[in-house]
């Protein structure tokens, strides 16, 4: 199958460039750091919390009182971070409720072990943040331990598997949400559902990354469609903006220095704002439900300014979304009716009745705290309608 045509690729590149150049202006209404809001009722798992956007998001959630699980491949680095955060706590304040669990997204077996270990605890999960990602900017195509193209595996397939394995916990923690950290780069993506594992098309790192981010959005449309509203699990996709992180770690040092000196790029703290907003603000959930109520088929997508945005036109193809759904499940070795199976074993109605339905963002304590974020209503969505 051919790739993205030149015209569409150039249009995509212009969208990405424009978004990068204007991101500071568009986010001018946001403080550099979102205010801390009480989240002690929330249990949250975040992947890739040892660096960049994930680190800042995890720290903010932890300081807000949430029970945070750092799902990382480098356990030692995460434990060191945790020690540093605990020792930075003010005298008299309670210790952060953070723990570290190992998961290497380059191994589907490791994801399954993580899922089993977490599920065995039977703890309700309120938020899963699929943040970990790679953009290997040099070198030839590399395959994971499972023989799958590494970007596709880390950025999409392993995250998809993790989400489905944690679905029983998310149902227990309902109303709950899955926040998927995506990228504007999906505008440059092209997905051949028959070649998610890589190998048929000529490889380059940009397409490896962009394709995985596009596949992730297409998969999320179908995941959301299969979860009934009453299950109370919302899927939210977010673009954190272009952020100075370790994502460019493969580039020569001199280019990295140039990259880190660019003022237009967000700091990790700024990049974490939209992720935190999607994880903790109740308006995001209301927005997601409103879209579903209107029969809108696409998953909610937020920009780095914490406002709803539109996905690339390639991400509107629902037939392809269905094929990506099927192929993803095949590659991660899950049955096509895996969602229905989980739902039948964890009746959403019962789940909601048995557990105290908490607002992820209690009104009385936080009234108005983040109101400024969604005041300016969503042109992007009305544009699509
Ligand atoms: N930075 C940007 O401009 C930008 C723009 C749009 C979207 N994003 C997205 O934002 C997310 C976070 O990226 P970032 O910019 O914060 O990059 P980063 O600083 O490189 O952080 C990536 C995190 O993912 C983890 N990770 C990588 N491979 C893993 C694996 N196999 N198993 C488990 N964890 C793994 C890394 O762990 P280690 O520390 O062990 O490597 C690290 O904690 C990614 O999904 C990225 O695509 C970033």
Automatic annotation (TrEMBL):
<comment type="similarity">
    <text>Belongs to the short-chain dehydrogenases/reductases (SDR) family.</text>
</comment>
<protein>
    <submittedName>
        <fullName>Uncharacterized protein</fullName>
    </submittedName>
</protein>
<keyword id="KW-0560">Oxidoreductase</keyword>
<feature type="signal peptide">
    <location>
        <begin position="1"/>
        <end position="27"/>
    </location>
</feature>
<keyword id="KW-0732">Signal</keyword>
<dbReference type="InterPro" id="IPR002347">
    <property type="entry name" value="SDR_fam"/>
</dbReference>
<dbReference type="InterPro" id="IPR036291">
    <property type="entry name" value="NAD(P)-bd_dom_sf"/>
</dbReference>
<dbReference type="Pfam" id="PF00106">
    <property type="entry name" value="adh_short"/>
</dbReference>
């Amino acid at each position: 199958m051919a790739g993205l045509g030149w015209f569409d690729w150039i249009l995509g590149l212009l969208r990405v460039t424009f978004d990068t150049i204007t991101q500071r202006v568009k986010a001018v209404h946001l403080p550099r750091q979102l205010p801390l809001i009480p989240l002690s009722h929330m249990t949250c798992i975040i992947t890739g919390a040892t660096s960049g956007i994930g680190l800042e998001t995890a720290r903010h959630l932890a300081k807000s009182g949430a029970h945070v699980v750092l799902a990382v491949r480098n356990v030692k680095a995460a434990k060191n971070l945790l020690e540093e955060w605990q020792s930075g706590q003010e005298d008299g304040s309670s210790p952060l409720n953070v723990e570290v669990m190992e998961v290497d997204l380059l191994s589907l077996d490791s994801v399954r072990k993580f899922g089993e270990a977490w599920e065995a605890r039977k703890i309700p999960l309120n938020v899963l943040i699929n943040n970990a990602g790679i953009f290997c900017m040099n070198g030839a195509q590399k395959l994971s331990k499972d023989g799958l193209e590494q970007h596709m595996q880390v950025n999409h397939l392993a995250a998809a598997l993790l989400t489905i394995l944690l679905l029983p916990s998310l149902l227990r923690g309902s109303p709950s949400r899955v926040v998927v950290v995506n990228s504007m780069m999906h505008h440059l993506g092209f997905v051949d559902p028959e070649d998610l594992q890589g190998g048929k098309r000529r490889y380059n790192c940009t397409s490896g990354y962009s394709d995985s981010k596009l596949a992730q959005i297409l998969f999320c449309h179908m995941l959301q469609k299969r979860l009934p509203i009453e299950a109370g699990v919302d899927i939210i996709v977010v673009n954190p903006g272009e952020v100075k992180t370790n994502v460019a770690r493969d580039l020569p040092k001199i280019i990295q220095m140039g990259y880190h000196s660019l003022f237009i790029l967000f700091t990790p703290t700024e990049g974490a704002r939209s992720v935190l907003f999607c994880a903790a603000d109740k308006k995001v959930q209301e927005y997601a439900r409103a879209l579903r109520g209107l029969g809108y088929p696409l998953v909610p997508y937020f920009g780095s300014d914490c406002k709803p945005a539109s996905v690339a036109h390639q991400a509107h193809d629902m037939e392809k979304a269905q094929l990506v759904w099927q192929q993803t499940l095949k590659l991660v070795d899950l049955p096509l009716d895996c969602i229905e199976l989980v739902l039948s074993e964890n009746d959403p109605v019962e789940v909601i009745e048995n557990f105290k339905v908490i607002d992820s963002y209690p009104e009385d304590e936080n009234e108005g705290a983040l109101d400024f974020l969604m005041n300016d209503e969503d042109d992007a969505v009305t544009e699509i309608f």
